[in-house]
Model the fold of this input.
Amino acid sequence: MFLRMVKGAIFRQKSKMLMIAFTIALGASLATAMLNVMMDVGDKVNQELKTYGANITVVPQGASLLNELYEVEGGEAPVEQYLQESELGKLKTIFWAFNIVDFAPFMETNAVLPTGETVKAVGTWFDHHMDLPTGEQLDTGVVNLRSWWDVDGAWIDDQANPDIAQVMVGSSVAQAQGLSVGDVLHLNGTAATVDLTVAGIFESGDDEDDELFVPLSVAQALSDRAGLVSSIEVSALTTPDNELARKAAVRGPSSLSKSDYETWYCTAYVSSICYQIQEVITNSVASAVRQVADSEGAILEKTQLLMLLITALSLVGSALGISNLVTASVMERSNEIGLMKAIGAHDGAISGLVLTEIIITAILGGLVGYFAGFGFAQIIGHSVFNASIEMKPMIIPIVAILVILITLLGSIPAIRTLLKLRPTEVLHGR
Amino acid sequence: MKRQKMYFRMVVASLIRRRSRMLVALLAIAIGATILSGLVTIYYDVPRQMGAQFRGYGANMILLPQEENSMDMAAMEAALTHIPAESVSGAAPYRYETIRVNEQPIIIAGTDLQGAVAASPYWMITGELPSASGQALIGKEVASLLGLSVGASFTASYTPAQAETSENGVTQYQTMPFEVTGVLDTGGSEEQYIFLSSQDVEALTGEEGTLDVVQLSVNGSQQELEAYADAINGAVPQLAARLVKRVTQSETTVLTKLQSLVFLVTAVVLVLTMVCVATTMMAVVTERRKEIGLRKALGASNQSIIMEFMGEGLVLGALGGLLGSVLGFGFAQLVSTRVFNSSIRFQGLLVPITILVSVAVTALACLLPVRSATDIEPALVLKGE
Amino acid sequence: MSLLQLNQVSKIYGDLRALDKVSLSVEKGEWVAIMGPSGSGKSTMMNIIGAMDKPSEGEVLLDGRDISKENAKTLTNIRRDKIGLIFQQFHLVNYLTAVENVMVAQYYHSIPDEKEALNALERVGLRDRAKHLPSQLSGGEQQRVCIARALINYPEVILADEPTGNLDEANEGIVLDIFRQLHREGSTLIVVTHDPEVAEVAQRTIVLEHGRIAREVVNENFVP
Done:
């Protein structure tokens, strides 16, 4: 009989129950969408922040950037140190390999222009294709690491032919030399001479405007340093630094206790990623580019906190909204409840009946809402980040508990108020 | 006159004597209005607040001498007048000279150290920033090259450009002792320099000298920055203002994404909340079908019934909207202080907008069930439970 | 000419003929009771007379005007101007006081006048309960407020649907006394009831069965 009554209430008051279910679905979809977006926003914004370029630089041990100074001062250049190009693939084998988004090797050399001026020629990967030892494939290079360049012409396409004889010219050099796209530039290196076609002229707004960018192998040939690179820039997704990370950065990982070390090593702090890079690249020193790494951390933290608070607001909003409607719809049933009391139903039986109906409605609404909300999250993900929002299974129980709890909280006070009324009062139009 | 009085009497009676229901409705509207005003306030303030965070990336505009030695402090001051003072979060004039320490050539940068830290908040300093004459901040690489650490001292020797070579062929140079108060870690080229105050550089070199570069960290969109740069380039011929593309361009990209994220989230939350408000209002009004039937039986025209409900809706909407404006601003303020450690701008225009939207949503939400109730024959409404 | 005249009125719901070619006329100042068991078509007839429903066939002349084909808006105006309604379930607006409930009818009709509304309550003996809400009034008192509300606009016809159906005997007596008073003052009363005691006090009783007028009884013991 109980079931029959519940069924009767749900099916015969279809429109009313449908409205409750609809509102619950709305609330649940709001909660689902916001929770999904919130939990994924860190990763997504992190990806976006990669437009600032590399946050880790890797140089050979002992190599000092001060080298240049000696050259300027005409002092003796110390023994030069290099990294091995063949080891680059190992970057994708470290513990946090998945977090390494882009990287590019650099080989800097001086070359003499036809006018007799010396210019810095930087050899690198533009859009390099790699087959990794793990069997994966990867396209990486400065196309991603210099996203802010304004390029007149085109990027060098070194994907098909890594030895392509092209050059990208910095805007200052291009202006000084009167170069334009399509021109052929004759370069005199320390070990060889090459003729390169100008593929593009870039404006970067910094010192690189005074440089030439050429394919890595061209720079290696110019200076006779085949298979060697002078530095690597790495762009990695990192976790904002906390106390532990700062401790490791200042005193070195060896100062950490064993468990702290484990935690540090297995968290994507910029310092632990640097440490892991040093483990795989022989004779290397990897250090964080603070300008990028620090700001990234701050912005990530702020964005996540912002989304957290907005999510909290919308959760509270949808919670109040649902419980409010449930209260309204329970109050609306005062007549029915009065009648049931009049024909001898106990308070418990009435509450049970009303609650069962509402919970069934809530579960149906919540289910619909979950999927709708997931859809909303995808819309947000695709239109903002051009990527789908990951489905987090832990959101399902959160939303389920939320919906049931809110529904109960919304209906119980209303039911209690109604039960307190005397049946005659209710039936005689109060 | 009398009719209007009765109208208000009925509306007020309905609002006051049906207290619990009206509270439910008011709460629903207030929630909607809170979310509306809170999120919209945040949406409008996000670029400003987030923009301040992006200043963590350091200088986004640099001033370079137009010709050799053409830029001095006066030129920099002149340039800065073209940027609103409150938008400049840091300005650091740099003058580079080469000195020798233990016969090693090192570049020193003379600057306003406070300004440099403000312009480059990412500087990680072990020890302290020099606060007095004779103190130096040295880059990490310099520290390892010279074997210096915080508290150590070194002697800087400077050879003037037009050095007079004395008769015995020994270069004459000026020397000055310095104490290391801090070591700088940036992961960039700054680690190769020794940073001194401008005054110390003057004392060491004995020349007033000119600036090599000025780094500016300016709050503003790329368009604003371009406008500032154009203004400076037009007005101060001694120097050239350039934007640091890496910072400005990336900031625009990321900030646009963030804003569109907040926009979409706001839109989704708003639409869902407004529908939620509407269903609650509908539930509250649907409950009164019988009353509508009775009024019709008494000879009320549909129009006057709708008018009465709209009157209630107006009061509820306005009250809820007002309440929501206040709560929403409170929420936005909370977010702002929690997330950005700064207070939020009060958007005055948002109050009437919030109230208007609340009234509109409430009215619309009332209208649907009232209309469907008035369409039904009064006899049916009065009979049916 | 009769105040109200029904000519061959039928109301058909699907296969059911709730009213089947009913003809009836009520004179001005007359007190008529309409009786019949449940399902005899009483309520349908009451709705049609009360301008709350339209007949499927036939014509309804109120004050010489055929209202059977009028649209909803005109019917509303007719209800407002010519008919005072009294319901079995009272139907008071539960958040308005007694006097305000009376004033609602004035409000829709013309201009609310609190003094007049209080006088109307005085006539049904509720002057001292004017500021009470319906929930604070007994069933009899609520029905008397309804009567005051029905009277307030001086309607041509007062139409009462089971006015004593929810009342005890004492209150029934009070309500019937008020009806007698109204009749003496010249009001036209149509009372729909299934209670013979209520029907007996009217001048004339029309008995409905299966949607038709089974018989008409003139009450010889009628006390004006």
